[in-house]
Predict the structure.
Amino acid sequence: MKRARYRRSSSGETILLRSARRIKSYNMLNNVFLTLLFLIILTTIVGLLALMTGANPLDVLYWILWGGFSPQQIPETLLRASPILIIASGLAVPYMARVWNIGSEGQLIFGALGAAWIGIHLSGWGSFGILIAVLFGGLCGLIWALIPGLLRVYRGSNEVLTTLMMNYIAIYMASYLLNGPLKSRASLFPETDLVGRDLWLDPLFPGTRIHAGILISLALLPLAIHILFGRSLIGLRLRIIGAGEVQARYFKLSPGLIVILSMIFSGFMAGVAGSLEVLGVHHRALPTISQGYGYLAIPVAMISGPSAPMLLIASIGLGGVTNGVTVAQMIVGIPSGMMYILQGFLLIMALIIIKIRG
Amino acid sequence: MSEAKAPIIEARDIWAIYPGGYTALSGVDLSIYEGEIHVILGENGAGKTTLLKILGGYMRPTAGEIRIDGKKVFLKSPRVALEKGISMAYQGSSLIGELTIEENISIISRSCRMDHREILKEVENMLSRMGFREIDPDVKVSSLAPSERQLLEVLIAVIVGRRVILLDEPTSLLSPEISEEILRILRKVSMNGKAVVMTNHKIREVISFGDRFTILKRGLKIAELRSCGECFEKFFPHDIHNDGQGSVAGIVDSSDNGEEILRAKDLTIIDDRGIYVMRGVSFKVSRKEVMAIVSLDGRGVREIAETIYGIRSPLSGEIWVKPGSRISYVPSDTERASVMSMSIAINASMRRLLEKRLRIGSMLISHKDLRSYAESLIKESRIKVPSIWSSMRSLSGGNARRLVIWREALRKPDLIVFEEPSASLDISSIELLKELIKDLAMRGSAVVIITSDPEDLKGLRSGVFFLREGALVGLEKSQVQEI
Amino acid sequence: MDQGLLVGLLNSTIVIAAPLLLVASIELLVQKSGMINLAVEGAMLFGAFSAYLATLYSGNPLIGVLLGVLSGIMVSGILAILAINMRLDQMVSGLSISMITMGLTAYLYRLFIGVGKPPQLTTTLGGLGFFSIATFAMPLAIWLLLYRSGLGILIRASGEDPERACRLGVRVSRLRLYLLLIEGGFAGLSGALLSIGFSGLYMDNMTAGRGYLAVVLVILSGWDPMKLLPAILTFSFLDAIQLRMQASGLIQIPYQLALAMPYISAIIALAIAGKSLKAPKSLATHEGPC
């Protein structure tokens, strides 16, 4: 019986993964190589899908790559990379403890709604208003993550399921609010009013949409996460909890508090990402505030952990792909739905990379 | 004992390398003939269990081949092995606790050509011949005592194995009388043509029993013999001559430096399934004292250790530890006390790292500190490691255990709890451990040993009490002779 | 209470419960064997889509059903490769597959049907009422299978202690594979029921979390088939009431709430369920040599 590719070894691993594991050492170069390899596979899949519509896959591929990484498009890529990076930085923390927060999308949305709402009312507060709006958005995201966190600690509910459900609830709640109570009277679309003009994060470079938030997050976040969690005693405790309940008990760590704290930290970051999207990009809340950033950040966080270089590279890479796909969609005319497919594949790839790393 | 014929089962050039790099077997050959009783001897970590698991289809060798009746076979799983006539009794049991005896038997009957009622009847016959009363096939296996479970496991393996019966430490939990019965059954079964392969660390038991012997050491086969008369002197000079019974009570060092570290009053502990493992026992341990709690039926060793260490609540009664005490705990398996995915250095320094207060200034883990902690630990414990930065998984089971032992010991704990101290260790490491225990006591720690093996206490001066089904069996404080 | 209202509510309850029962019953088996299948959402959705598309092009609803079942099996098969063969994390793999399916169905929908309202099918299957009620018997059948048959012992063994089950000769991986594939088929069938069975239409993300809800309801019922039926009926009844209230305009409930109901129910179920010691010990892990 020949199933050579997936024969299991003495420890239950498949041959496929065992040979891939010859890329053994966990060093940077290998990680980058793997990430790039998978991005290439990704674009190939996109090409195949394009083929189905009758579009030329090479065309599609070209536009995706151009849309993502050509000099003209880099600012837009960074624009997309920024929320992914912010969220992934936040997710790195609970993921170290194996608390699988899948709910960043909903937390981002909730944060965006909150920031928009308060931003409308804070007209005239200037920079201070910006700070308040961002923090408030973060708080909203935090709350959205707190519920699943409490459920896990006090009811033992699995956080993958609960955070996933919260995502969908957030989407419907946003739909309701944007079509109803929060809807702008000045607009025909389901969106809020514009936030106060002085709260806008203006583009720093003419011709681009890059605002201060983007630069700050790109420059500071990965490093901060790396130091605060990657090489710290807090990070050690997170990893012990991630190793298992048994180990956490042995070292007399109380996982409950740490689980909740890590959840709300990641929720806060997702909320902040949402706020920045509102203040810096759209200046209001609307249904398309998220381009799936919440889901895209998950594989980034999974494979990067608290490693600054990986967070940067993966976020920018993914930002590029996202932008590229949007561009390709416009130019070549491939149907939407692509993003979901990409998100799903990326998650699977992240799982495989983690497995190979062991 | 017919070697003129070809062997029933042959293992050629078997290598077993675990992920992480630990090599359990290096190029071992083994031939088993019809009707023979083949005994595999070796210290802990020599590779006996691994070899058996490979023959039983539970593990696949990294390299090498297995032949049955001269034809190469691929033992993909225990099921395949069973279908080919090879049965195995595992050290950790193969019976599923949540299912009943009958259900377990019905599962295994699917892999061999026997009806499950046949098997059940045979088991009942054998048990009644040994003097056991009726067994209820509808009881869950989890409610059986460990020795009963092992007995059942061995009998089922004997009945179900058509050609080869593999037994991994089949008598470790059985009383001498039952062990003798088992050996008798095995002899009978071998005379009917079946081959029996077993490992046994009670060397005395099998020295005159086996037809052929294979000695393993650190994954290599170092000898194959017809008789084992000189086995002791030649291969196991460290082994302690004993019969495994008798009281090993010790005396408390009556120079009573008396600072009480641990006190328990009417302590009652139950395990996760609600079974009593300690009923209303009181004891106290002071500095420089060694106290041993021996669970004669193997029950509750972990639960008692966890309660004393402080991560489990007793059902009733009081347990008091001197406030501010540093308590160490060496569990029976290393996994619980370490983070396998992290480096040896971090695992070695874990206690010190966690003890540091989380101040803004000292939040980071310094590479330098890690290296110095880890290297001093490695030096003291004399474990050989490739590099302190490699993952914990690259250590063998025994070495990982020693790492944890030394890590817990070197903290200068006020109280240290040992759970099944001799688990996974070979004879020389056990000796070193006993020296360490004596040293710890001398330097002022209170030592508590919880075990199911009274052997562990040979050579130690300690207070001892015995438990069976949680109840006190005898509190002995008498002189002991040090060996 | 108005007789007509009650009958209407019961009717709605049955319509809501049937697809859930189809999926949840087999999911219970799957979870008892130690796996958790979050790809059922995708299997249901893909089943709904292919059933609709097949019926649209062939004119024969039976072909639609067949294709629905087959696509459900295919989706589950992919999960089997990821979770059993490659031993990736079960929950995240299942989730990823459901995501991919969501995108794929949206993509193919635009491709084959384009924008605008999908054509209403008139050739739906008859006798659905009877079939729906027949699904009520599934929990009982599952109970019989689990506790009165040899196969049930194997399933329970795989879920409680797969390592020892392996030692006893159980082919754990193969068993889990078969269960996943069967579940996929039922999920596809359930999806087909939703699209061509009850409504004759297909809409984007038609299943709206029902697959996830089924998984959660299994957990809520404590992995006890006898508790599964009342759990599903209760939720369905409450859902039916909620829909009726919305339709009658009695209370101003936004339509988004109706759409969000399965998800909200799932969270409530999880909160109620709490940490269960009755969970199969090996749930969501696939280690061990078999």
